[in-house]
Structure formats: structure tokens, C-alpha cells
Amino acid sequence: MHQHDVAPPARTWLLRFTRAERAIHHVTGSLMLICMATAACLYLPALSTVVGHREMLKTVHVWCGFALPVPIVLGLVSRAFRADLRRLNRFAPHDWEWLRRRDRRAVRSGRGVLPVGKFNAGQKLNAAFVAGAILLMLGTGEIMTFPDPWSDRWRTGSTFVHDWLFLVIVAVTAGHLWEAFRDRGALQGMLTGRVDPDWAARHHAGWADSWQRSHDTVRTSPDGENPQVNDVDADMDKSSAEDDPEFAKRRPGTY
Fold this sequence. Notes:
With about 260 residues, the chain is mostly helical. Helices cover about 60% and strands about 5% of the residues. This is Formate dehydrogenase. Keywords: Cell membrane, Membrane, Transmembrane, Transmembrane helix.
């Protein structure tokens, strides 16, 4: 066989997000954007005049707002989603260092300077904010939608919190979209579920190392004789949480 007849090795991709995880993200994001767009039309006189159909916009806003937690609750059926929730809920020592250092995104020899896990500290803080914002908007929205059982004090406070939190959500969402669109690797991971190992090593070195151990296990195991592995899930051998860099070497007293 001539050398040019030899098939090139198959490209290896890391499975970053399952189909269920991507669906949860896309549906929740779509509902959030609809809520923001309808809220802008309801509260800004200029937009309200141009768009019209105020009652219809109000109905869409209320229904989408109450539907926001639904994808997340249904997503708890997914084991991969629950594992990612545990990661997002944990702060490891390298996360605190990521927040302190200005060179947190620096790359040396093709690897990030910090052993960042599947999610960096900024993504974890964003997830915590979104979860809290959804609950708070849901509670204040319920008081505004069904005001009869509530006193004037509660209704006034809820309206104040709802309106101002909306502005904060707009700012955070704009920052989230900005970071997503300027990082094609991260965007590809959320759209297709798979990322390049080189991108993972640059931005999530700890997670890439975890994947590499899984990859080596597959290649050396008796059942993994095929050297061309197209998709390898970085969580495939995570039967124990202690093997994950998000959980290992935590500060004393953290859970």
C-alpha cells in the first residue's frame, strides 16, 4: 500500500454538552430573550407605541416568565445536566485564583496557566446569578400578576425589584452574548456539543486533562482496541466525584 493511500487518523473531539443540555440552554435562553423583548416593549413608551398590541405582549411576557424554570426542572432527568449543576455549584481553589489574577486567560505552551475545570469562575458566577434572577423575577412577577392577596407594600416592592432587576439582567445577558460570540470554540461547544481538544487545553486545562485520562483509558482497555476515537465524553469514567478537578482539593469547610 502506498503512503498516500493510508487514511488519515480520525479527528478526536471532546463531548462538552449532550443534546439534552444544549436543549435546556437554548430553550431557557429563548424564553429569557422573549421576556426581555416583551418587557422592553411594555415599559419603554417609544417601543410600546411602535409595536402596539400591549395586551398580547403582556400575555406572552407572563407565560414565558412562568415557563422559565420548566426546562431546568425537566432537565434534572439528565445525568449529564445534574453533573454540570454540581460543577457550577462548586468553587475550587483555582476558581478563586482565576478571579484574582489578571492573566487568568493566559496560555503557555498551548495550555491555560490555570487548571480550569469544565466551567471557569466567571461562568459559575453567571449561572448563580441567572438561577437567582429567575427565582426572584418569578416571585415578583407572581405578585404583580396576581396582586389581590398582597398588600400595597408588597406590590410596590415587587414592582421596584422586578423593574430594576430587568435592567441588570439585560446588562449581564449582553455581556454573556458578547463573550460567547467572541469565543468560537465555546460557541461551537454549545451549538454542536463538541469542542477541539486544543481549545479545551487553552481555556479549560483541568477539564482537558480529565478528558485525556479518559481517552487513554479507552485506548488501552481490552474493549477499546480501535485507536480512532471520534467522540470521547470527558465524564465517561467519572463514577466518583473525587476524580473531577471541580471537587478535588477544595478549601477546608467547603462542600
